[in-house]
Amino acid sequence: MSRVGQAPIPIPSGVEVSIDGSRVRVKGPKGELEHEAPPTITVARDGDDLVVTRPDDERGNRALHGLTRSLVANMVTGVSEGYAKDLEIVGVGYRAIAQGPSRLELQLGFSHPVPFEAPEGVTFEVPQPTRITVRGFDKQLVGQVAANIRKIRKPEPYKGKGIRYADERVLRKAGKSAK
Asked: What are the residues whose beta carbons fall under 8 Å from the beta carbon of 134, sequence distance 6 or more?
């Protein structure tokens, strides 16, 4: 039995949920998201909770049960509270400059600044020149945008220079050794 899939999803105040067949639409103060559930999984409203059920204990249905419950719960949390991902920039002269809430200019040791445009629903904050906060109401989109920023200059293992997640540890390698 899926322990994740069995847990009901509480609906906070200010969040509207509409279920049309297998399509779940969640609307809240931060935005609106929708998800198409697999045909074998059913999402139903039970008072102030959402309940995700499956028809049997087949392997595929068990996997989709927990996945669908997690995706719908992330949607409810996203439209009510939102998500944030923090990035750190390490390196001499490396910095980020905010040019509005949805545009960044990154100086990362290249011969030119690297512009980065956020998709709709994602905003950037630059509290310090070496810190970037990616915010949005779609958890998958926030994570993907943060990964795309990190991909511009990944942390290298010798000096640790580059863009990394705030909680990421970079394993350092020893450099050349003299004989």
From this structure: 84, 85, 86, 87, 118, 122, 123, 124, 142, 145, 146, 149
